Amino acid sequence: AQSVAQPEDQVNVAEGNPLTVKCTYSVSGNPYLFWYVQYPNRGLQFLLKYITGDNLVKGSYGFEAEFNKSQTSFHLKKPSALVSDSALYFCAVRQTGFQKLVFGTGTRLLVSP
Amino acid sequence: DSGVTQTPKHLITATGQRVTLRCSPRSGDLSVYWYQQSLDQGLQFLIQYYNGEERAKGNILERFSAQQFPDLHSELNLSSLELGDSALYFCASSPSGGVGTGELFFGEGSRLTVL
After folding, report:
1. Which residues in chain B touch residue A9, judged by CB atoms under 8 angstroms apart?
2. Rg of chain A over CA atoms, in angstroms?
3. In degrees to the nearest 10, what's the CA dihedral of A92, A96, A98, A103?
4. B61 and A CB contact within 8 Å
5. H or E segment and range at residue A44
6. B108–A41 CB contact, under 8 Å
7. Dihedral sign for Cα atoms in the order A12, A14, A15, A20
8. Pick from A32, A101, A106: CB nearest B45
């Protein structure tokens, strides 16, 4: 069965510093990997996805993620954090041939001024 | 704005009652997904419909049911409600229902409180 792990409940970073939100996955076959962000009282918004190709994927709002097949990881990164990046971040995986997207438990990112 | 509309935004009801949550997908999207978000369970996939037919099923209780209508809007029916059903219920849509690689577009959710 496909699964996603986000080992950190919360990540704290100072504005201007780089940030990393970790995600590892488990699927059979090739994964489709996604990052979503949820702001307070809002639905989830798509940030970026990895399907195939270049292991470094660039997405919205300056975020990027690195796919590492050997470590089964898909960490979200941003070179310089903004206070407005503070939100709940979800990693998700979809297994080839399956319909549903399986989400991790979410990581709360707190960027301090 | 994702283009996915969910109503009602908030709902307070009592145990044992029945409620219906409604979702209108983005224009042209054929797939509708329902997710439940609670503090202790995270984001759980409930069910997917594609062009009116059930396509995938997740951790949906027997007290819950869903359907997708010919105009592609979907309803999630929750019955014999329990305190533990209190959660945020999200609808999402996507253009495809098959093995496409596209992302999901989420509505802003319906917050259900069972007292």
Report:
1. none
2. 13
3. -10
4. no
5. strand A44-50
6. yes
7. negative
8. A101
| CA dist A99 → A75, B28, B41 (Å) | 23, 18, 20
CB B18 within 8 A of CB B81: yes
Comparing CA positions, the residue from A23, A16, A70, A14 lying closest to residue A47 is: A23
| Touching B: A residues 82-111, CB under 8 Å | 90, 94, 96-106
Cβ-Cβ contacts under 8 Å for B114 (sequence gap 6 or more): B13, B14, B15, B17, B81, B82, B83, B84, B85, B86
Q: Please give the Cα distance from B41 to A5 (Å, whole number).
A: 13
**Torsions phi, psi of B83, nearest 5?**
-55, -40
Decide: A64 and A48 in contact? Cβ < 8 Å.
yes
Euclidean distance between the first and final Cα of chain A, in Å?
Answer: 41
Per-residue confidence (pLDDT) for residue A42, from 0 to 100 = 85
B21-37 pLDDT, tens digit each: 999 999 989 999 999 99
Q: What is residue B115's predicted lDDT score, i.e. its pLDDT? A: 95
b/e map A4-38, b = 16+ CB within 10 Å: bebebeebebeeeeebebbbbbebeeebbbbbbbb
Q: What is the mean pLDDT of residues A15-40?
A: 93
